[in-house]
Amino acid sequence: MLSLLQTHRRPGRSEISELALVFFKLGTTAFGGPAAHIAMMEDEVVRRRNWLTRERFLDYVAATNLIPGPNSTELAIHVGHARAGWPGLVVAGLAFIIPATVIVGAAAWAYVRYGALPEAAGLLYGIKPVMIAIVVQALWSLGTKAVKGLITGVVGAAVLVLSFLGVSEVLLLFAGAFLVMVLENLRRGRAGQTAAGFLVGPLLFAGTGAQAATGAVAGVSVSLLKLTGFFLKIGSILFGSGYVLLVFLRADLVERWHWLSDQQLIDAVAIGQFTPGPVFTTATFIGYLIAGWPGGILATIAIFFPSFVLVAASSPLIPRLRNSPWASGFLDGANVAALALMAMVTFQLGRAAVIDWFTALLLLLATIGVFRLKVNSAWLVLGGGAVSLAYRLFG
Questions:
Q1: What is the residue extent of each domain of the chain?
Q2: C-alpha to C-alpha distances, 390 to 119, 355, 383, nearest whole angstrom
Q3: Under a CB-based contact definition with an 8 Å cutoff, are residues 85 and 91 in contact?
Q4: Is 217 exposed, middle or buried (0-12, 13-18, 19+ CB in 10 A)?
Q5: What is the pTM of this model?
Q6: pLDDT digits (tens, 9 = 90+) for 47-68
């Protein structure tokens, strides 16, 4: 009850200002995709500022995985709401999105003007191994809270193995949450019938989203209204990683409407991947390519707007769900499944990031920095980028 009252009290200016500064910093330094963003947020809002407990933070991580949209952006919005109510919800989300949008918009302008991507390989060469160390630390920290016993441990391990075998991450997330919910409540002697009804709604919603994603209206002319509607749909229904985003974008923008070439689409997704902040700022790049600054601005607003709505609707319910044995079990399962999927992504990123002795050394130093010295993750990222640029120039 206390947490609910704190959520709805009038926030002070200092809280709003601190939220804006923290998430603006994250929006300018959070490279590496959602797993890395979540790790950096955990460092800032749990370990350093104690705004949330690890359990509450994990609940928000699980909640973002259960709704469509960009996970790390929705997590920022959840944290903002928990810290400073409705004003915090808006401020945290915008502070995280705007820096990345500006950077990607500038990259889109340079791409159109000069016909190529800005050179970023030297910067990312050193940032990637540093991000792996940051994510591993977050996985360890959050995992000690998420694995609450034999059931959650076994389910988490099973999700990890099945994700290596290529099973859909959305299916694994919901299945893991459902399984923990049923097993935990059966262990406590509760009937299992209620559990099935609890999950029917989310599963139907996920299925509906998958069908809607393939139902774009055919056309050939570019219009701002059509562009805005397309990205509003994507932001409302998309589950999964940036690779899933690539599939949806190609189906409509390249194959149906012929607004982009395959190479332009690949370059757009690459920009979203190697710039800091949300990967969904790919929409900014694409909107600019198609319709200039109006297209870039409208595409950005459209793809992120559903996240604010979905978080505003779901965030007040999360503390109440913890009071229900069934809903609490579902969140426990979603927590451990989400961390298992995050571990899988980290393994894949690690194989791509550590490619020689220099990146291995950076990973080792960053691991020492984050585990032993407790260095702020933003400084580690900036340091990794600076060292790699110097190595590329003078090494």
A1: 1-395
A2: 15, 18, 11
A3: no
A4: exposed
A5: 0.69
A6: 999 999 998 998 998 888 778 8
